[in-house]
Amino acid sequence: MYIAQDSSANARKFVADVKARINNVLANSPNICLPPRAYPFLAEQGYLRFSVHANYSALWVWRGSIIEIHRILHNKRNWALIISGPEGMEEIEPSE
């Protein structure tokens, strides 16, 4: 369920917390991030993973000197299905 459907106040706090974590940690220490181990196909595309909230991660790539965040996903979701869609599922399975 989406956070805003439960509570708009919680949704605003979530967004503020994620932005603060990105601005205070990721922007200052991008080298602490690693490729997503469970999804090697994302690592092959240059994606890095950064924990932005208790159960959420940002998938991002370098574009020159710019950090480009592509998605913020719940850690328990099937990222392969979200990123590639159902047509690619037989080829892309999480490795962990």
Q: Topology of this protein?
A:
Blueprint: H1 3-6, H2 8-26, H3 40-44, E1 48-53, E2 56-63, E3 66-74, H4 79-84
Antiparallel strand pairs: 1-2, 2-3
Write down the oligomeric state: single chain
Q: What's the pLDDT, averaged over the residues?
A: 84
Order of helices and strands: HHHEEEH
Task: Give the number of DSSP strands.
Answer: 3
Content of β-strand = 15-25%
Q: Main β-sheet: number of strands, strand sense, barrel status? A: 3 strands, antiparallel
State the end-to-end CA separation.
25 Å
Low-confidence stretches: 88-92
Residue share in helix: 25-40%
Shape descriptor: globular
Structural class: alpha+beta
Count of alpha/pi helices: 4
Main β-sheet, spatial strand arrangement: 1-2-3
Give your account of this protein's structure:
This protein is α+β, with helices and mostly antiparallel strands and 96 residues long. It contains four helices and three strands. The protein has a three-stranded antiparallel β-sheet with strand order 1-2-3. Strand 2 and strand 3 (66-74) form a beta hairpin. It is globular and about 35 Å long. It starts with a helix and ends in a 12-residue tail after the last helix.
